[in-house]
Amino acid sequence: MAGASPTEQEDAWRRASGCYASGHWGPRLERRDTRRRARWYRSHPVIHRYQPLLFDPVPSLLGYSLAEMLEEVRAAYFPELEGALEARFVENTALAYINGGFMGRDRHLVVFHPVLNHPRTPPEVMRFIAKHELTHIVRPPRMVCGEYRVHPPEFWEHEEAIGPERFAAWAWIHGNLSRCSRETSRGFQVHRGWRALRETGRGPYTPTLPFNHERWERLCPGDGGQMMFPPHWAGRPLPVKR
135 and 103 in one domain? Predict the structure, then answer.
């Protein structure tokens, strides 16, 4: 175990004080009293774990290894990422998050909420969430127009490039987990009612239709009652070529 550097302590203070969520980074932080910040540092030490766990405290019910899935996503979409990656199911308010440098420099922990630990959770949804979290490493937060953005514009550009299934993944998440979740300024949050969903089924995963990844609502308005085909498509089937 080792203590955190001053930069890491400052980062922890910013998260606790709400500056990341509010977007008012500089002014709000500067108004904080120095003594109050020092007291917070002493009572909230940031500890890094340099050894990975020897066992998974929450067995996976997905039917596959969470760690292997994360490594597959890293190999396919983030080959530039080096170091160790660790995946865990941990009950927290966030659906998922990444703790960068949790096990040391370039050794990261990706945390998934246990509500996703279900045999009927589609692997496509888990892979997309892993893509989202690992994008935080290659497209880190930064200041944009005087505001601290956890998701700067280049973050969404990168996610769109590697995750065309994002609309289908979010449609599944909202369709199956809406009873135990809510959208807040801090993102998609899971509340205590998630345990009621452990014994319930999960709906099917509907992948994005191959129309240049157009949104489902645009292709199928009126809750899918009528599909809007591209205008250049033929109005009737073409004759079979012989």
Answer: yes
Indicate whether 128 and 85 sit together in one domain.
yes
121 and 14 co-located in one domain: no
3-state secondary structure of 149: strand
Clarify whether residues 36 and 82 are in a common domain: no
Return d(Cα 152, Cα 59) in angstroms, integer.
34
The first and second tokens of residue 205, run together, are 């995963």
**Contacts (Cβ under 8 Å, ≥6 apart) of 122:** 172, 205
Residues 6+ positions from 73 with CB-CB distance below 8 Å: 127, 130, 131, 134
Residue 141, CA distances (Å) to 73, 83, 136, 155 in order: 21, 20, 7, 8
pTM over 0.70: no
Q: Are residues 75 and 185 in the same domain?
A: yes
Spatial contact of 91 and 114, defined as CB atoms under 8 Å apart: yes
Domain interval for residue 20: 1-47
Residues of the chain with pLDDT under 50: 1-6, 13, 16-33, 44-48, 50
